[in-house]
Write a structure and sequence with these properties.
single chain, 458 residues, alpha+beta, Topoisomerase II, domain 5, Gyrase A, domain 2, 3 domains, four-stranded antiparallel β-sheet, 48% helix, elongated
């Protein structure tokens, strides 16, 4: 009984809630400020890159690989669909085969679909993943704490999350071409604190924004704001047909039938969904009915508008942080530059080791290789370490080479390695990244050349 410690129940609940909320923030609801990924998205990308072959595989196989890092299998396939669907995702990062769903039909079961990380996704999210800061994950497997990405995932695909008892995060998807141009401008100035004048538009499909460009820019500058969207339509056939080509998010043809239920019931209008990939809804005013097309348009404008509240909230070290677009770019680039520098230093270290091995081999050739071949492997290692003042690791590398390699000329190989070393020593991290971003931009321009948005439609 003497070992019983009395504690106030309020303190216990408060401490447990704080620990739980920090766990939710860092692993579930909020994207990481360095890569814009929630943990499940990061694990899907990393596991697919590290564990899956470079060809289409069954989604069930992908889930089997991802679950090694993410012990919540029920959420994995939904996440993969969200990142891969060409109909519902503004920037798909998986190549797919099979039904991944559209605006009407749900995706097929995972045993019927196939996917693989796209080449573009690997360039944006994975090429520096080996230089990430690694941590022990939920399954006791080493995983990146955050990926050194060229562009944060939340800005490419948008992000929404509702943590228990905390603020809702809602980040709109942004135009990838504008994003890349912004980053390129910052890298050209070689200052992560630089504010580019590139105007970054949203990537929300064909939609009207009832706010001004200044309202949108203010959202990016502050990380918080309300944006109002309306339907995109045109009046054709002298007012006999109204063609809808863009609906606000979460609005569909079923909403149209609810809004115009009375007119449809009275056979004043006919509503048809003629869409395939793009939204294309036709409202035909039947010729024998007296109804003004302006009445239909006014009703569309009134009933099919949507106000969305955005708030940029991120996880940083287990805590929730509010950030502007510029804040995220700065943290993202700071981490990316750190990983690029780590890669350059590692490559330099590898080249120096190879040069050291070749220099030792040249000395062995000069002194005669016969002495070395007469020794046992253990004695040969000691001999190299003592005579040439090398490390045991270098000695083992030298002895692993065949006699034919030890006796051939290495002058050209040494020259090439020295040139590569000189090139790396003169490499500027900003210029190194700039070339990558410009390469990605040339690809993205071909894929997303038709992104458009209309501001201030009255």
């Amino acid at each position: 009984m003497n070992n019983i410690i009395q504690k106030d129940a309020t303190d216990i609940i408060k401490q447990n809630y704080i620990e739980y909320s920090q766990y939710v923030i860092s692993t579930r609801s909020y994207p990481n400020i360095r890569d814009g990924c929630k943990s499940v998205h990061r694990r899907c990308i990393y596991a697919s890159y590290k564990g899956l072959p470079r060809h289409l595989v069954k989604s069930t196989n992908a889930i089997g690989e991802i679950v090694k890092y993410h012990p919540h299998p029920s959420s994995i396939y939904d996440t993969l669909v969200g990142m891969a669907s060409k109909y519902n995702c503004p920037f798909p990062i998986f190549d797919t085969k099979g039904n991944f769903g559209d605006k009407v039909n749900p995706p097929a079961a995972e045993r019927y679909t196939e996917l693989m990380l796209s080449d573009l996704a690997i360039k944006i999210f994975c090429i520096f993943s080996d230089y990430s800061d690694m941590v022990l994950g939920e399954t006791d497997v080493q995983e990146p704490e955050s990926l050194p990405v060229l562009l944060p995932l939340c800005f490419l695909q948008g992000c929404y999350g509702i943590p228990v008892g905390m603020s809702v995060v809602n980040i709109p998807p942004l135009n990838p071409i504008d994003l890349l141009k912004y980053y390129i401008d910052v890298l050209k100035h070689k200052d992560i604190n630089y504010t580019s004048n590139v105007f970054i538009k949203p990537n929300l499909g064909n939609i009207n924004i009832l706010n001004t460009k200044n309202d949108w820019q203010n959202l990016l500058n502050t990380g918080e704001g309300i944006i109002k969207y309306s339907t995109v339509y045109s009046v054709i056939n002298s007012g006999k047909t109204i063609k809808i080509t863009g609906l606000p998010k979460n609005k569909s043809i079923s909403d149209l039938f609810k809004i115009f239920s009375s007119e449809v019931e009275k056979e004043q209008i006919d509503i048809r969904d003629e869409s395939t990939k793009d939204i294309n809804i036709s409202i035909d005013i039947l010729p024998y009915q007296r109804i003004n097309y302006k009445y239909i348009c006014d009703k569309i404008d009134k009933e099919l508008t949507q106000s969305v509240k955005y708030k940029f909230i991120f996880s940083d070290g287990g805590y929730a942080v509010y950030a502007s677009f510029k804040d995220v770019v700065k943290v993202n680039l700071e981490y990316l530059l750190k990983c690029v520098k780590k890669k350059i230093q590692e490559n330099l270290c590898n080249i120096n080791n190879r040069l050291f091995v070749l220099n030792v081999i040249e000395l062995i050739k000069k002194d005669g290789i016969k002495k070395l071949t007469s020794l046992s492997n253990e004695d040969a290692e000691k001999y190299l370490v003592t005579k040439y003042k090398t490390t045991l690791e270098i000695a083992k590398v030298v002895l692993s080479k065949p006699i034919s390699y030890l006796t051939k000329e290495h002058e050209k190989e040494i020259e090439n390695l020295n040139q590569e070393k000189e090139c790396l020593l003169n490499t500027d991290e900003y210029d190194y990244l700039l070339a990558l971003y410009e390469d990605v931009l040339s690809v993205v321009k071909k894929l997303y050349k038709n992104i458009s948005v209309n501001f201030e439609r009255k």
